[in-house]
Amino acid sequence: MIDTREEILKLLEKKGEILQKDLWKELNIDSSKCSRILRKLEKEGLIKRIEVVVDGVKTFKIVPAHVEVEEEEEEPSLIELMKKVEAITGLPPCFGCLLVECDPKECLKLEIWCLRRSME
Fold first, then answer.
1. pTM for the full model?
2. Are the C-beta atoms of 59 and 26 separated by less than 8 Å?
């Protein structure tokens, strides 16, 4: 029977990289056991664990130690994306507003946007 360490290394060899949250699910082991094994493999210099944010949740991307890893930028938040859209297109914040029940007369974001526009 192949031990879990070997399974992890073979899986990495095959895939090149995998998210830690996907790894423990794929190998059908609990997350804490997976974390312990990965920390040991990292300490032994066999893998690298790179902290990443996926869908707003921190996890680790696991890669073989010999792989060069580029720094990844964090995923921008929805608010940051909407600010970029507004800056590029000039559309008001209502365009991407998530509030269904919004009264434009009472919307602070819209008021600020209008004030900024009037000062340009």
1. 0.55
2. no
